[in-house]
Each structure stands twice: as structure tokens, then as C-alpha cells.
Input
Amino acid sequence: MQLTDDISAMRLALDWAAKGIGLTSPNPRVGCVIVRDGQLLGAGHTQPPGQDHAEIQALKDAAARGHDVRGATAYVTLEPCSHFGRTPPCADALVRAGLGRVVAAVGDPNPLVAGQGMARLAAAGIGTELGLLARAAEDINIGFFKRMRSGLPWVRIKSAASLDGKTALHNGASQWITGEAARADGHAWRARADAILTGIGTVRADNPQMTVRAVATPRQPRRVIVDSQLDIDPAARILSGDPCWIACAATPDPAKAELLRARGHEVWELPNAHGKVDLPRLMLELGRRAINEVHVEAGHKLHGSLVREACADELLLYLAPSLLGEGQGMFALGPYQQLSEQHRLQFHEVQMIGPDLRLLARFNANQE
Output
């Protein structure tokens, strides 16, 4: 493979970083390629926690191909680590390998690194550059960046609706508004998240599994249920398989709570002043448990609460080319009396997925 410039090499490194989706959490998804005179010598991406980081994989790949990397350039999508965690520092490995230059897309927000990796490389006489395709590199690890900076996960609300904003008919019928391609794409977004969050209303109405099924995944995200009064039926399908985390405001039926715990589920009491689940506290708890990205698929009430309480960072909306008329909406908000009360967002990405339109929009208040 011929790589003609720094940008093409870093784009390839980003492609390798994407291979880590579903594998690396709570660590970031990182890709690394090693290049000399436009020739790819080695490539790799971060493995599951406790295993090789991207730089080590790329060095091993180059060695397996019989390439000498001394004097070559390593392109890495995140600043090489400089500390001992479950693995030794990658910066030291690059120094030992004799790299001539290291180009990193973005600095590591982890305070254990935060510039020290690049400084260690520079101190060893290796040429360093930082900032190439930084926005793309941060986007692939947007939850990791937010958690390192604030202790909170990145929260993405997913919804599928008609062009007039309806997620179901007045009688609740909703399968299917969008096409098969959009549904598979939605499962791909589930797969990249560390946790899938839903509410008791959705559990009662649809009895969903809330798992990744339409695309291949190396692991299932943790499932989180917001259930203020612990009304969940112990036979609900979402409770099958891996244990769930259930956030409630109270446990009126202690025997049910103990039954759920005996089955491996965790029940957290996180009440707010109104007898509902304290959503900001829930997000703090998820961040404390090293959850980087939360994928929300719930009803209009929980969606609206997450927006009102400033717990949502991004909307992932699939719009079908149809009109449903009177029916259920995406968000229970308002009614507001002034336009100044509206929640402002910025479009981040617009793309056709089969016959449907996919929109990514981010809340201004939560943007970097």
C-alpha cells in the first residue's frame, strides 16, 4: 500500500482505530500505522483491556513482515501512553524501536498521560507532531474524552420517526417506521456503546431484549433500565442474558429487589426530589463505572427528561419519508411559552441510510 502523505497515513490509522469498536472499553479506540517512504510497514489497533495497545500491535506486525522500523514514522490516533497501567508505556516501546518520527492526531485527555507521552518521545530525540485530523480522532473516542474531562459518559439518544416527528401511531403501533438498513445501522450504534439505556415504559410496551443482533459484535453492551418504582416484571426479556443495572427511586417491593439481585442484576436507589430517578446522579454513577458511551432507546418521556436535565449530548435520528399524522412524538418537552426556551443543537452529520435519513445533532451546551 502506497501512502502519499501524512493525511492519507493518518486516515488509515483512523480506519484501524475503528476496528477497536466494541473491543477496547473502557480504554480508547486507537489505531497506529508505521510508514517509510510511503510504504506501510506495520499496522495495528488497541486490543481488549490488558492486551496490546495499537503501537505494540503495529510494531509486532512490522516485525512479522520482516520490516526494520528504525527511522520510520508512526502515525497514531491518540498520544502514546507514558504510564504503567495493565500494560507498559507505549512511548517507551517506540523509543526502543528507534522510530524517527511520531505523528499523533490528538493528545490524551487522561491526566496520567496529558502530554507526557509526546514529551517523552521528544526527549529521546524523536520528531513529534500533534493535531493532524484531531477532530476525527476525538470523535471516534468521544465518550472517553468526555469521561476523562468530566467524569460523565457521552449520552446519545436514538429515535426513529416519520417526517412529522412521530415514533408510533396513536395506538402505539411502530414496527416498522424505518427500513431494514436503518434498523441494522441502529444496531451498529448500539454495538459501539458501552451501555444501552431504556425506561420501564419501553420495557412494558415492547418487552425488548435491548441487545445487538443485526450486526456482529465482540460483546454485548451493559443494559441499564430506568424504573422509578421498580415495576419491572422479573420475567421481562431484557432481564435475560447478562446482568442489568436497574436505577430506581424506591423499592416498594423489597422481595423483588432481592430476587433481581440474586439473579445477578444490580438495583440502585437514586431518588430525586420528585420521586423519580435522579438522572444526573445516574450519569455520574455510569461514569464512575468507566462507561464511555451510553446509547439511549426509550420513550418520549425519558427522552424528554434526559434533554431537560442536560444529560443528553447527541441525538441520533432516523427519519422515514412518511407522514403518520396524530401519534406519539420523540420528546416530551414543553409546552414552552417563548422561543428562548427551545433546546438548540447543531447538525453534525447527515446521511442517507437506505431510503431513510440519518441525522446526528449535538447540543450546544454540551459541546467542547
